[in-house]
Specification:
The structure is a single chain. This protein has 416 residues and is α/β, with parallel strands linked by helices. It folds into two domains: 237 residues, Aldehyde Dehydrogenase, Chain A, domain 1 (3-Layer(aba) Sandwich), CATH 3.40.605.10; 142 residues, Aldehyde Dehydrogenase, Chain A, domain 2 (3-Layer(aba) Sandwich), CATH 3.40.309. The protein contains 14 helices and 16 strands. The strands form four sheets. A seven-stranded parallel β-sheet has the order 10-9-11-8-7-12-13, with helices on both faces. Helix 3 runs antiparallel to helix 7 and helix 5 packs parallel to helix 6. The longest helix is centred in the N-terminal third of the chain and has 19 residues. It is globular and about 75 Å long. The protein starts with a helix and ends in a 7-residue tail after the last strand. It catalyses: L-glutamate 5-semialdehyde + phosphate + NADP(+) = L-glutamyl 5-phosphate + NADPH + H(+). InterPro entries: Ald_DH/histidinol_DH (IPR016161), Ald_DH_C (IPR016163), Ald_DH_N (IPR016162), Aldehyde_DH_dom (IPR015590), G-glutamylP_reductase_CS (IPR020593), Glu-5-SA_DH (IPR012134), GPR_dom (IPR000965). Catalyzes the NADPH-dependent reduction of L-glutamate 5-phosphate into L-glutamate 5-semialdehyde and phosphate. The product spontaneously undergoes cyclization to form 1-pyrroline-5-carboxylate.
Length: 416
């Protein structure tokens, strides 16, 4: 089957399925999702076996350790996927929520309610849990979805969609509500991006080249999950007891994710800079240092200017030394991708200036950048973390997968 025929057939079937989802009650949707959570736990051996095939292929392709970590599923991560689905079940169904209601002077009654977007396409790389997160969020919000994962996670994604289809079949629901693109060649991506009459929104999650390709070629509205060049600024008045735990967590806990810190900014008045750099090195972090930081830790490597705009997704960290908060803010404005910025300080005025001067999806004070996450924000999971401003910014949860319709009831009124 030619690319365009394949794409149109899948898109049409998904659009058709999206119409049937509108009639499902919250209890029907929750029943499906609870069944999915149970299947994830019962069939974890199949999931892990499929994932092992992907990991084997990843090793043969010499994927980086960070990418291998993003790809990895184990018993704990499968349990986390099931837990995330149950969390989504516990959240209020946004469909039908009344956002505005009033009676006009002429007697017309207006009620505005949340309704599903329709068909959501997500293009993503590496992380198999995205398949479950996006599928569950889309289904709960009454949307059908098209899932196009990366070739490196093909077997993992395929088994996860298979389980979703099993529970949909059991409940008599069209399996095209969760559509899996089993073609990983990029030549199949472009035709999807041209299906504006069948797909309502596309969310790219992945590397810079993927985001650029989708943004430049899509005829469908795009919500970008762009790279996370996250900046963490240590002010001169930072509490030393907080600094090392926050910095280590921000960089080391999971370096291969978008909310990990990539740039560490040190005020030269902070007295424990050397100890902080040593602590990072002890954790295996490769330090790319400016001259001031390099003088404190000569075992590091000289940083290049372009490093400050790089999303490493690995145990690498660029370090910049500044002499003022204003210099730190100017640096962040120059290097940030608009994802996450954080400050560690005991100076309330410095914190206020920091949070009112910058323009990113999330601004943190005295905590790890790793908290910029849908689950941590109480959304259950996320379709992605939008770094744009329309129509959502930050973690994209259930409510962000809806739009509104206004229902107007009259009694013969005409406009004069």
């Amino acid at each position: 089957m030619k690319e365009i025929e394949y794409v149109k057939e899948l898109s049409y079937r998904t659009k058709k399925a999206s119409r049937t989802l509108k009639s499902l009650s919250s209890s029907q949707k929750n029943k499906v999702l609870l069944g999915l959570a149970d299947l994830l736990e019962k069939r974890k051996s199949e999931i892990l076996s499929a994932n092992e095939s992907d990991l084997k292929n990843g090793k043969e392709k010499n994927l980086s350790s960070a990418l291998m970590d993003r790809l990895l599923l184990n018993e704990k991560r499968v349990a986390s996927m099931a837990s995330a689905v149950r969390e989504i079940v516990s959240l209020p169904d946004p469909v039908g929520e009344v956002t505005r209601g009033l009676t006009l002077p002429n007697g017309l009654e207006l009620v505005t309610k949340r309704v599903p977007l329709g068909v959501v396409m997500v293009i993503y790389e590496s992380r198999p849990n995205v398949t479950i997160d996006v599928g569950a969020l889309s289904f709960k919000s009454g949307n059908a979805c098209i899932l196009r994962g990366g070739s490196e996670a093909f077997h993992s994604n395929a088994i996860l969609v298979k389980l979703f289809h099993e529970i949909l079949n059991k409940e008599g629901i069209d399996t095209s509500a969760i559509t899996f693109v089993d073609k990983t060649d990029r030549s199949f991506m472009l035709p999807f991006l041209q299906q504006a009459s069948l797909i309502d929104i596309v969310v790219p999650r992945g590397g810079e080249s993927l985001i650029k390709f989708v943004s430049e070629h899509s005829m469908i509205p795009v919500v970008k999950h762009d790279k996370g060049v996250c900046n963490l600024y240590i002010d001169q008045d930072a509490d030393p007891a907080k600094v090392i735990p926050i910095v280590i967590n921000s960089k080391v806990q999971r370096p291969g994710v978008c909310n990990a810190t990539e740039n560490l900014i040190l005020h030269n008045g902070y007295p424990f800079r050397k100890e902080l750099l040593q602590a990072l090195a002890k954790e295996g972090v490769e330090l790319l240092l400016d001259p001031s930081a390099l003088s404190l830790y000569p075992k590091g490597k000289p940083v290049k200017e372009e490093d400050y705009q790089e999303e490493f997704l690995d145990l690498r960290l660029s370090v910049k030394t500044v002499s003022s908060l204003e210099e730190a803010l100017a640096f962040i404005e120059r290097t940030s991708s608009g994802h996450t910025e954080a400050i560690v300080t005991e100076d309330l005025n410095a914190a206020k200036i920091f949070t009112t001067s910058l323009d990113s999806a999330a601004l943190f004070v005295n905590c790890s950048t790793r908290f910029h996450d849908g689950a941590e924000f109480g959304l259950g999971a996320e379709v992605g973390i939008s770094t744009g401003k329309l129509h959502v910014r930050g973690p994209m949860g259930l409510a962000h997968l809806t739009t509104t319709t206004t229902y107007v009831t009259g009694n013969g009124q005409i406009r004069s």
